[in-house]
Write a structure and sequence with these properties.
Layout lengths: L21 H12 L10 E7 L3 H6 L7 H5 L2 E8 L1 H9 L9 H24 L3 E5 L1 H4 L1 H8 L5 E10 L14 H4 L10 H12 L2 H10 L4 H9 L2 H17 L12
Antiparallel strand pairs: 1-2, 2-4, 3-4
Length: 257
């Protein structure tokens, strides 16, 4: 079967002990660097930690020791990086002004584009990948473990390796009309919201989740179990603290009256 993004699925179980050859890993990393980038600045850095290394072992708890993190052939941490470009500017007697929210967003976009290029190239070579959202939850620990200097902040981690059989099934997606708008944003009626989620809510997987969580609908699983407001606020503050500690931005103070 020809690899295609339509066959993408998150792989969380990998063949144990099967390493990715260095030549292949370099191909994946080279593909990452061909991603689109703001001003050709490449405002990201990529840290590769291979299975069995002390750093890999240290990183696993940052990702809650989930199987994708402990069983992968490598954990690849993608970091927003204004440090390298700013250092180059200063060495050329050009004073950079990139320690602010605008440039953190630019760097984060660069970083995620590079990570997607890496992931697509990995899948084209028969590898499996899983994005680890836990990266932003434990960013302070990852900064410490990876020795990230000021101006560098972890944004996402891709667990990569050779998939174990059987492959997981494809996950469902909302229909195109749920996410595509033409010319202007068209807000949703209650009836449209019901229709867009109808298939997912009626699935056997959802029925099982409702039984396991003893809740009446799927939305409440998200708000009361998976991504609670309390957790969201906690991790938001923690990530903002990391951004400030790493010198990525400071909101300007309001002028004195």
């Amino acid at each position: 079967m020809i690899p295609t993004i339509q066959n993408h699925r998150s792989v969380r179980n990998f063949q144990p002990g099967r390493a990715i050859p260095d030549t292949l890993m370099n191909e994946l990393l080279a593909a990452a660097t061909r991603a689109s980038t703001v001003g050709n600045m490449q405002l990201y850095s990529i840290v590769v930690s291979t299975a069995g290394s002390p750093t890999f072992t240290e990183l696993a708890p940052c990702h809650f020791n989930q199987p994708a993190a402990t069983g992968a052939a490598a954990l690849v941490t993608f970091c927003a990086d204004i440090h390298r470009f700013s250092q180059w500017c200063r060495q050329r007697e050009a004073e950079p002004g990139y320690d602010n929210l605008q440039w953190f967003v630019n760097a984060a976009i660069d970083t995620l584009l590079a990570s997607q290029n890496f992931s697509l190239e990995a899948e084209a070579h028969g590898l499996g990948i899983c994005y680890l959202g836990t990266t932003t939850y434990t960013a302070a620990d990852i900064v410490r473990i990876l020795h990230l200097p000021k101006g560098v902040v972890p944004v996402t981690t891709v667990a990569v390796g050779y998939p174990a059989e059987p492959l997981p099934p494809l996950t469902d997606r909302l229909p195109l009309e749920a996410v595509v708008h033409h010319d202007t944003y068209q807000d949703y009626t209650p009836e449209q919201i019901d229709a867009l989620w109808a298939e997912r809510e009626a699935s056997a997987e959802t029925a099982q989740l409702l039984r396991e969580n003893d809740l009446p609908n799927l939305a409440r699983i998200f708000t009361e179990r998976r991504y609670t407001k309390a957790d969201n606020l906690h991790f938001s503050k923690a990530y903002l603290d990391v951004l400030r500690e790493q010198g990525m931005f400071e909101f300007p103070l309001a002028p004195a009256e």
